[in-house]
Amino acid sequence: FLQMIHGLFRFGYDNHYTSSDVSKRIVAENFYKDCDCSKKEAGEKIFSPAEIHLIREAANQKLPNPRAFMILLAIETGMRAGELCALHWDDISETDIHIHRQQLLRTRNGKREGFYEVLYTKDERRHPHGGRYFPLTTRCRQLLDQLKTSCDSSSEYVFSEEGEWIHKTSYEQFLKRLCKNLGLSITNNHAFRMSLNSNVLIKAGLDAKTRAAILGHSIATNESYYTYTRRDEIQE
Length: 236
What we know:
Layout: H1 2-14, H2 28-32, H3 49-62, H4 66-77, H5 81-85, E1 96-99, E2 102-108, E3 111-118, E4 132-135, H6 138-150, E5 160-161, E6 164-165, H7 168-181, H8 190-201, H9 208-215, H10 219-225, H11 231-235
């Protein structure tokens, strides 16, 4: 927000709307003194197994809403929100889910122009390499079979409504409301990725290289930012 203020006044000064750039008088320390700059502990960034259970139960109550199905698949696979939105039925085989697309928002001059699809995931933006494959577990297969019986069969997208794919913001707002109604402090889809890595993949005995490949990260990124242990799990 402080950068936004500086940018706004710099724009005004450069285009002669103001006679001076008054934002230069804003001292960062003074700006931050009334802000909550506290950071969450590592273990507070992921859902506990008990919280995952609550979210799963709440999502099941919202079926057949496609956004509820998205939450359930995110729990199982750790897929990013944009990857869920862009998932095609032909990306799913008998053995795995091919995750190689994402939905992005196009903006022009600060205005939203709509969502579009690209054939690479977030970690492949500079160096696409065909995406990654997530094993089609029994739970994933059952979930997708259930979805297929209740979804709009005319759409190429797994998650659709009235023939149109689900927008990322719509899914994220749905997830946020569901988590808040459960009294959870974490409300973002990204936490599912961290939770899958820490609560499931590590406990399954998978090595760092395999876990990174499943989530679509480098090994260093996965170990530095996605591997956490909650305090309650340590005590247990």
